[in-house]
Design brief:
The complex is a heterodimer. Chain A is α/β, with parallel strands linked by helices. Chain A has helices at residues 2-11, 15-25, 39-49, 90-99, 140-146, 179-182, 220-225, 245-254, and strands at 32-34, 56-59, 63-64, 86-87, 105-108, 112-113, 119-120, 123-125, 130-133, 149-153, 190-194, 198-202, 209-214. In chain A, helix 2 (15-25) packs across helix 3 and helix 3 (39-49) packs across helix 8 (245-254). In chain B, strands 1, 2, 3, 5, 7, 11, 12, 13, 14 and 15 form a 10-stranded mixed β-sheet that branches. A 3-stranded antiparallel β-sheet of chain B has the order 8-10-9, with helices on one face. In chain B, strands 4-6 form a two-stranded parallel sheet. Chain B is globular, with a radius of gyration of 19 Å. Classes of the chains: A alpha/beta, B alpha/beta.
Amino acid sequence: MNKESARKNSLRYSPLEMMAICGARAIKDGEMVFAGTGLPMLSAALAQKTHAPRAKAAYEGGFIDPRNVDLAFSVADSRLHYRAAAAIGLIETLGVLLQGGRIDVGFVGAAQIDEYGNINTTLIGDFERPTVRLPGSGGGNDIVSCAKRVVVIMTHDKRKFVKKLDYFTSPGFIDGPGAREREGLKAGGPAVVITDLCQMDFDEKTKRIRLKSVHPGATVQQVLDNVSFDLMVPEQVPTTSPPTEEELAVLRSLDPQGIYLGKAE
Amino acid sequence: MNEAEGEDKLITLEEAIGKVQDGAHLFWGGFGVQRPPMAFAHELVRQRKRNLTLYTCGSEIDFDILAGAGVAARFEVAYFALEVHGLAPNLRRRAKEGLVEIEDYSNLAMAMRFLGGALGVPFMPIRTMLGTDLVRRYRFRKDKAKVIDCPFTGEKVCLVPSANPEFSVIHVQRADREGNCQIDGIKGEDVEGARAGKKVIVLAEQIVNSEMTRSHPDLTAIPGIYVDHVVECPWGSYPMMVYNCYDYDVEHIRMYVQQCKTEEGWRKYLQEWILDVDYKGFLKKIGVDRMLKLRARPGYGY
């Protein structure tokens, strides 16, 4: 945590804040967003309050386009009722909205991700007797299968960027070009992976994960040291645009207690 | 004020649990922090029920208690953790010990399995889970899911088996004695789940006169014709939330997560909050101060 707090002091914002802001920037105005608990909730709200005022969010419990004034702890939180356009149920959000092809951008997290953007959120270790039992798919598989574009937000760690998943929960590009289509998946798959060090996207030809930009203060080598597969690195790797004053101010106002962003130093 | 004519299905929580035999399969209502049948979970533990199989989309502390106490051995589920509060501490331990088995589906898959069960068809098609371990690997349900070519379009679809558990257990804001239920706010997968079970047990924050339900039939989410038993159960989802009734108790949830990281801590929680009290004792233990603090504010519902 020392390294993290040092970076935070020198940059005047934290890696988690950078991640939430990158998430918001991945949302275009007017888009329909499917968000989960945590940073994606902040990304969606930040986008709405800055560059994407006409973006709308849905949460799997059944909430459509909430205007909550208090930060929610859950996708089923009563806080999301506040001035929402509708409060229905899972078949509405995951079935009609997502599977029905009405979600532009979906957010998910990952405990492990491989070089084709496939995701594990189910277990670490042995299938019969897992070392760590994780939450499971939840709506994650549904989001990654059906959203037109998927944003993955996760912290960067060598043990998370793996050659082989312990369990294959949600489909990225599976094993390369044409694989999603072969399996019957209709929508686009992962578009960007946002970590505390960098952003990654996917090579159009090979569908393999590729470094897109490194965050201010991080280096390409640092990223490479924290992945367990051969990451594609373009010749020129730009630096992620640092947060603007406005982005930071709005973001912090959304989570004043630091529930998702961490406590202020 | 005469109760409109109709069957009186009201029984006590203890009586309701008495109807559930060891080894039974149950649809479990609520979604995550919203309206979980927590009081029902506690009473299952007190009456030492064993080998239950539970079906739901996503559950949190209620499931963790049932996994910890050895009440449920099998879960057909999409999500089992505590969101912002982390992983489910008892589940994590019991899974490592090999004492619980999870059959993993996605949330949409589980919701569709309940809809299929409610509709009386053997399976439902979905366009998720395709190409992943969710269709390839199973723990105990050999016929977990199948991928076929659609007979109409030739496209690949995933079929998931409909679920018709022996019981459906749902916690709602209001029900009358005939079992007509009103649910405020999101309904998760409870509308389908309540119709999938062979017997339906409803727990309600309030028992209302059927004048009230029958004067607004459009507000009935679950008609009494599907319901077998009704239990009055105020604060029955504590420490989680019920929209328009009360908020979650973040302090209690954090205490639970922290304490249950060790088996000893869990044993202590089990004794203090579940075994040493009955339902009314549990309410007393929450205490008036906390209840007044967590009571929903008008206009917000939390």
